[in-house]
């Protein structure tokens, strides 16, 4: 079964409140999404393997740890996931970036794919799929399935706000995928928006609507 990590660090919770506030404009919204993504990148990379190398400090020779060269990839679900890429890359700058384009049909609420471009060696990479919102879970499940169909086997999913329904859906469809989330909110409303949530993440990031 998926592990679900709720990242309730005070800095993350404070910044999330800024995002929820309807008076926060796009410029600040983008900046804060990036800041939270940096904090989440710190946690999602906690299990990266290390290896020992020999180095020389100004005082003596010693053995010290470095990352064991694990290949990483960040995969935003377009469009709102784009807002989380810069923050992730701040901590893991060598990661490759793939893109999965999906939108949720407002009538059926089903995800519709319009783009998919991933690193060629996706089967060798640990992939971090990012999207600020996990509502019904339809988009996340479809994106994860596309990525698996291209050969990926090592996937984590990182989002800012999830509905309990979305968590359940991803856990059931992809029990091998761990979920990192800043808040699990109360519920979905009749339009499958997260309550209390932050509204439409894509519109708030890019100033559309
Ligand atoms: C939003 C969000 C997720 C999806 C979540 O994207 O960024 O991808 O909805 O909803 P779900 O869990 O019910 O699938 P949206 O479809 O609004 O597209 P956008 O990012 O292009 O605005
Ligand atoms: N997508 C969003 O952007 N917000 C929600 O609350 C649900 C889906």
What is this structure's SSE topology?
Blueprint: E1 4-6, H1 10-20, H2 26-44, E2 50-56, E3 61-67, E4 72-78, H3 85-91, E5 96-97, E6 99-104, E7 111-117, E8 126-130, E9 133-134, H4 138-149, E10 154-162, H5 164-173, E11 178-184, E12 187-188, E13 194-195, H6 201-206
Parallel strand pairs: 1-11, 4-5, 4-6, 4-8, 8-10, 9-10, 10-11
Antiparallel strand pairs: 2-3, 6-7, 12-13
| Shape summary | globular
The overall average pLDDT, rounded, is 96
Unique bound compounds: 1-O-pyrophosphono-5-O-phosphono-alpha-D-ribofuranose, uracil
What characterizes the major β-sheet? 9 strands, mixed
**Quaternary organization:** single chain
User: Which stretches of 5+ consecutive residues score pLDDT under 50?
Assistant: none
Rg for CA atoms = 18 Å
Distance between the termini: 38 Å
Judged by helices, strands and strand pairing, the structural class is alpha/beta
Q: Count the helices. How many?
A: 6
Written as H for each helix and E for each strand, in order along the chain, the element string is EHHEEEHEEEEEHEHEEEH
User: Could you give the count of β-strands?
Assistant: 13
Strand fraction equals 25-35%
Portion of residues within helices: 25-40%
